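Run log, item B.
One chain of 282 residues. Sequence copied directly from the ordering sheet:
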Amino acid sequence: MTPAFTRLVDILLAALVCLSAVSFAFASEDSVPERLDGVSIDEMLDAEIPLDTKFMDDRGGQTSFGELLKDGLPLLLTLNYSDCPGLCVAQLNGLTKGINDIGSLDLGKDFKMVSLSINPREQQDRAAATKKKYSDDLANHHNPKGWSFLVGNEADIQKVSKAVGFNYTYDAKHNRYNHAAAAILISPKGHVTRYLYEVGFTGETLKMALVEAGQGKIGSSLDAFVLWCYHYDANENRYSANAKTILSIAAGLFLTIGVAASLPFWLSRRRAATAVGHVPNT
């Protein structure tokens, strides 16, 4: 083969590889794996979760979201199950690390957490074992009693999952649930305020989402001010600085400083004019 012919063959092979990659990419975008059909999270911001539906907690007692919210603290909700082969483990590990990174907010004192099992066959003792696994890794300033692991029947579980738009399916062949992952923030009145789609949670994002869900009842005045200057960017899954708000604050500060700086000059002019019996127009 001549060098020119060999080069032509290489170019054609490269073109075929690129064409195959592009075709695969379009096919991937247009088709959803069968096991993920029906799996999604539909954001239901401001929706109210069922407050009276009863579940069994990890201590063997009955409770409801209404009971958990009665002390006026925001709630962070996840939907998982103890026998999940991977995603739940990653999410709850990441959540534990993110909560430990907050520092200025205490679980049980400033906010609560609930992990509701989507498996109606899961029993209280299994939920208790799962709770111990993750709560043992919480920092000392967090109270494990503030994190409830709940189990219940299928109808009651679906009341909550549908209220927050958490859609999942059951794979009977492999005895597992297909689902996505999200931390769902609930206000003290039981309304959905935010969805966080992280697995490796950052303390700062969790803190701002909890302060937002707390509706001014938790966090410092500085936290509230910072939240006012930021907005949640759904594409980036984090809170980003709101340029318009920050520019408005900067303009207000500039004007205030300008007025304050010029005030002594105008006062001195007025005093000097008064001394000679004439007050200039200002």
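Observations after the first pass:
- Residues 243-275 form the longest helix (33 residues).
- The CA atoms of residues 51 and 65 lie 5 Å apart.
Flagged for discussion on Thursday.
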